[in-house]
Design brief:
Organism: Singulisphaera acidiphila (strain ATCC BAA-1392 / DSM 18658 / VKM B-2454 / MOB10)
Largest sheet: none
Shape: globular
Protein name: DUF2780 domain-containing protein
Distance between the termini: 33 Å
Number of strands: 0
Oligomer: single chain
Strand content: under 5%
Pfam family, one: DUF2780
Radius of gyration: 14 Å
Number of helices: 8
Helix content: 55-70%
Order of helices and strands: HHHHHHHH
Number of domains: 1
């Protein structure tokens, strides 16, 4: 297991395989959301990124209204009024097997871990491309 998976697993109490799926889901989302050159730099900077991407296996069967309600509520809580693409990410994380409580614990810490691996210039470009998604990691203690 890579350092980021081990760290997130111990910080969140989520099983390492589930953390790997969550990171794969997050990376897949970033891959769709970022320009290809920017995502390539992110992938190169993050150890084990290819393995995490391959751990993501989307399964969108069985999404019911209860799940959509949960995702919308969680999106509003984590991303405020401008949930936008955040709801898609939350839905994908839910489909990967993470519960609402696990997603709430996972996302802010996942972004914190990305900060540890990404060069400052790359991190700023990711933040600029996805401003609503960097919010959870920065709501800690101001």
């Amino acid at each position: 297991m890579s350092d980021i998976v081990t760290a997130l697993s111990s910080q969140t109490g989520i099983d390492g395989e589930m953390v790997k799926k969550g990171l794969g889901t997050l990376l897949t989302f970033l891959q769709k959301s970022l320009p290809p050159d920017l995502f390539s730099k992110l992938q190169a900077a993050l150890p084990g990124a290819s393995e995490m991407l391959s751990a993501h296996k989307p399964d969108h069967a069985g999404a019911g209204s209860g799940l959509l309600g949960m995702v919308s509520g969680l999106a509003g809580k984590l991303f405020g009024g401008s949930a936008g693409n955040g709801a898609h990410l939350l839905s994908d994380l839910s489909h990967a097997g993470l519960s609402a409580e696990q997603i709430e614990a996972f996302l802010p810490r996942a972004f914190e871990q990305l900060k540890a691996f990404l060069p400052a210039e790359l991190l700023e470009k990711v933040k600029a491309a996805l401003p609503t998604l960097t919010t959870p990691a920065e709501t800690g203690g101001s």
